Amino acid sequence: MNIAEPTKKEKVIAAAVKLVVANGFSKVSTAGISKIAGVATGTMFHHFSSKDDIIITAYKTAKRSFIAQTMNCRNENNVREDLKLMWYNLIEWSLNHQDEFRYMQQFVNSPYYGKELMAQDDTWTSLLDWWKAAIKNMQIKDIPIEFLIKIFSTVLYSTIDFLILHPNKRDEYLEHSFLMCWDMVGVDH
What we know:
Elements: H1 8-23, H2 30-37, H3 41-47, H4 51-67, H5 79-96, H6 98-108, H7 115-120, H8 125-136, H9 145-165, H10 170-185
C-alpha cells in the first residue's frame, strides 16, 4: 500500500504543530514554519493568509482527527460500551499523535481560542448529539452537558498525560481511568 506524500499545506500544518509544541505560539514565525515544512514562503501564503490562519487551521485539523475517533461509537442501546470505545480510541489516537494532542492543549489555553472560534466550530456537533441522546435515555447523568463534557475531558486528558509519561502503565490504567470516568458521568441500571 502506497502512503501518499503529504501536500504542501499538510507539511505547513505539521511544521506549525511541531514548532508550537516545542516553542510556544509567540516564538513561532512564518519563516520558521516555512523552513521546517520545506516549503517556500510564497507557496505557504498561497495556502494560508497569515500566521494566525496557519495556527487556527492546524488546531481545526488536529481536532477533526481527534473527534473522528468517536465516529464509530454510536450505539444508543449500550452507551457504556460506546463511551468505553470512544475512551480507548481517543487515548490511542493521542498516544500515537502526541504533538497534535499537545498542540490542542496549548491552543485551548491560548489567546487564539475564544467564543468566536467556538461558534464557527461544528466538529463537536455529532458528539454533542450523542451525549444529549444518552442523557435523554437516562444512561448518562442528567446534569448540564457542558459540565459532563468537562468532567469527561478532564479525566481523559489527565489519563493521556499520565500515559505519555508512563507508557508501560497503559494496559493497567486504561480500564481504571475509564471506570473513574464512568462513575462520574454514567448511570448504571
